Please model this.
Amino acid sequence: MTSQQVQPRVVILTGASSGIGRATAQELAARGYRLVLAARRERELAALARALDPSGSRVLAVPTDVTDGTARCALIEAARAHFGRVDVLINNAGVTVERGWWWDDPDPLRVLRVNLEAPIELTRLVLPEMRARQAGQIVNIGSVAGRIPFNGMYSASKFGLRGFSQALRRELLGSGVEVSLVSPGFVRSEMTRAARLPMPGPEVVARAVAGVLERPQREVIVPPAYRLLVFLDSALPGVMDRLVPPIFRRRYAHRRK
Ligand SMILES: NC(=O)c1ccc[n+]([C@@H]2O[C@H](COP(=O)([O-])OP(=O)(O)OC[C@H]3O[C@@H](n4cnc5c(N)ncnc54)[C@H](OP(=O)(O)O)[C@@H]3O)[C@@H](O)[C@H]2O)c1
Model:
């Protein structure tokens, strides 16, 4: 490759084994990005990497538990060893309290470890290289739940991730490192499999992620219809106190015994 040619960007994508992460991997592979896919389920990850790139040179699967500090370092090292650098980090891996209420969960703080602590620690690992090169992108997958509170532990993690993203974006202004937040509403995935709501597929979020890689943005709410609910929650929280619990009950209908 001559210096005139633009090198494909190298993307680390967490939570790539299903849902939004899987759809994002497919979208970015089709656009020519080099991918490092991370999640815990090895078989799903390896099958996706093979399907996207049978040659094994453009897409790398690195089984990773993002809550494990050693595994996080190994992920970054694997990306550098294979591709020589990391241009983009997409913090997509996420969990919620699926069954029952968060206060009944024996380990509710795992939601904070996966959704908030891991993105912060991974960012800390890639930032020195990006700042030195004066180029790079961090994309965090937040949630409309980081705007409209409804599930204590999940909203705590996503409000935290939104605060982190937007503060980091300001801290890095002018550094060449861009920070974007993509905040989905309900979309079909393993996380929402029990929800009784009409939902678009995860591809809508994958396209939004591809969009911010081309043009970084402070925050993208997707699907756009959720912007109205976000506005309502900040302007008329009392109205939303009446609207949100019924939606929440449908989302978590399986909680009813
Ligand atoms: N679906 C929605 O309606 C919706 C709405 C707003 C925001 N989001 C956000 O979108 C992101 C993706 O969720 P999704 O809807 O696509 O759900 P999903 O299908 O359940 O995917 C979650 C992904 O996170 C990975 N993951 C979970 N714990 C992990 C860990 N400790 N280490 C590494 N990877 C881990 C899972 O892989 P393994 O199990 O293989 O580790 C999986 O690939 C999450 O951040 C979620 O909060 C989703």
